[in-house]
Amino acid sequence: MMLTISKFSLFLSLFLTLRAFANNLTTDAIVPVSGTNMGSVQLPNGDTRLYYQDKNDGNIIEMVISNAFTVGVFEESVVLVPSAQVRSNSPVAVSLVADGDTFIQVHTFFFSPENVLSQYYWDDKLGIQGGPNCLTCVTNKGFVGVAGSQMLYAMASSATSPPTLRVGFVSAGAPNTISEAVNTGSGWSVASLST
């Protein structure tokens, strides 16, 4: 009988501890995200910028997170690209231009509904740039990707001045290989992978 009471007491203690823990959980414990494709960058100070296409409304969302999920917290989210400018189920690629401990630009690439390689970016001096009328964006060049392709990557190098941006995708003009849009500071050009 004593053993049974002891087991019951242990069980009751465990139950009350777990119940207290569960009661302390709130809806703020997790951040609901309903997305398809995503990309992210980590800033020199550890902050994270995560970009994804919302599967409900098609917008590309920017999430600001203070660091890695284990130590950081969600701070805010905003619509970066309205759904009218994004292909449904578009891949999302992101690159960061930094100078030492300072981030200068964050570039987000995706495909438009017409499969045009498109871009929005944040610049430390100009703020948000993007959309069909952005003269400095790759969007303005009209490079068309293969319809439905999920292949897209982006990278930036601060080793050159100005920085070099590279965006890989499958071009409608060369559908059997990878093409790369490159901007070394004098505008965008495109070339296909060759030997």
Automatic annotation (TrEMBL):
Q: Which SUPFAM superfamilies match?
A: Fucose-specific lectin
Which Gene3D superfamilies does the record associate with it? Fucose-specific lectin
Q: Print the keywords alphabetically.
A: Signal
Signal sequence interval, chain numbering: 1-22
Keyword Signal, does the record have it? yes
Name of the protein described by the UniProt record: Fucose-specific lectin
According to its UniProt entry, this protein's organism is Lentinula aciculospora
